[in-house]
Design brief:
By secondary structure, the protein is an alpha+beta fold. It contains three helices and four strands. The chain has a four-stranded antiparallel beta sheet. The longest helix is centred in the middle third of the chain and has 18 residues. Bound molecules: ligand H2B. Ligand H2B binds next to loops.
Length: 104
């Protein structure tokens, strides 16, 4: 008997599909094989608060962006290791981050 499929492997999106989805996320861009956005805050403490909020969401989603902090700037880079590129999980995480960070 086949065992239950709990987590089907995410599919890598092709370039045309990535561009199509990116047009709905104007703050994000493609950097190599990752979705990327830099968020700007009033100071380092605000930037670090954002990092911690993202970290909690990443643990819940089991999807962890690379995060680079430069004083008041945080760059998130997203890809899906299992897919070997960008999947819909990356777009879902990007969209949710935008909706949690209006005005960042
Ligand atoms: N984060 C990101 N950004 N991409 C992944 O493919 C990924 C991850 N995979 N966090 C997760 C962890 C995977 O290794 C675990 C087993 O769910």
């Amino acid at each position: 008997m086949p065992h239950a499929q709990s987590n089907p492997k995410p599919l890598r999106l092709d370039h045309a599909e990535i561009e199509r989805r990116l047009s709905a996320l104007p703050e994000w861009s493609l950097s190599g094989d990752q979705l990327q956005r830099t968020f700007v805050f009033k100071d380092f403490v605000a930037a670090m608060q954002f990092v911690n909020v993202v970290a909690v969401r990443a643990e819940v989603a089991q999807h962890h962006p690379d995060m680079l902090v430069r004083w008041n700037r945080v760059t998130l880079s997203l890809s899906t290791h299992d897919a070997g590129g960008i999947s819909e999980k990356d777009f879902a995480f990007a969209l949710e981050t935008d909706s949690n960070c209006a005005g960042a």
